């Protein structure tokens, strides 16, 4: 895909982040970047008073879009990936809670079209991932790694996709995989902490947009790398930045760290 105008479709345009992406595109702030709203999709469009094209038939939206932005639900991702391949649209996925099978499916679909998948589209969070990986690589295994995250009370998955991404960055820095190092269970008589494990803890409450901290505990000292989000519009802005970057991307699976060259 390479043209002066990039037509953006937003699936789930009535969702929390979907509304923010629509607002960003209608603001005119992205016109100089060649971004143009092609429309949105929603399950219920009855009595919808909209200034833009909206449909409950997602394929109609894919047909008229160069890029589709998806912050919906994990159960929708397979169909969206299939439609992206069919219509040669770039798919930008910010949906959290994807399973390993979902991620493998995206990897397969990316052989046919460009897909940018990130559990968090924030510029700051992706810089955090790079810093965590570097810190984990430079600190020896005697430094214990713990990851804390907090979100609003309506979030249904835990740990968050971003917390898991932080854990993966730490595991990569240690030359290992998160599947080998993660410790998600801290309840009851757990025994002493196992050396080299990456622990997780979670808080849910109020209207917290998102907070993530990687703790590195050493002997007599502690390093904390944190990111706090205060406005969800940063996710919309990050997704649109990814859309601009994707204009010259070949088929493949990318992340926001590719977009930001981190």
Main CATH class of the largest domain: Alpha Beta
Q: Assign a percent range to the helix content.
A: 25-40%
Unreliable stretches covering 5 or more consecutive residues: none
What is the CATH homology-level superfamily of the largest domain? NAD(P)-binding Rossmann-like Domain
CATH topology of the largest domain: Rossmann fold
> Whole-number radius of gyration?
19 Å
What global shape is seen? Answer: elongated
Number of domains: 2
Main sheet: strand order: 3-2-1-4-5-6-12
Average pLDDT confidence is 94
Order of helices and strands: EHEEHEHEHEHEHHEEEEHEH
Q: Number of helical segments?
A: 9
What's the end-to-end separation, in Å?
23 Å
CATH architecture classification name of the largest domain? 3-Layer(aba) Sandwich
- Give the percentage of residues in beta strands: 15-25%
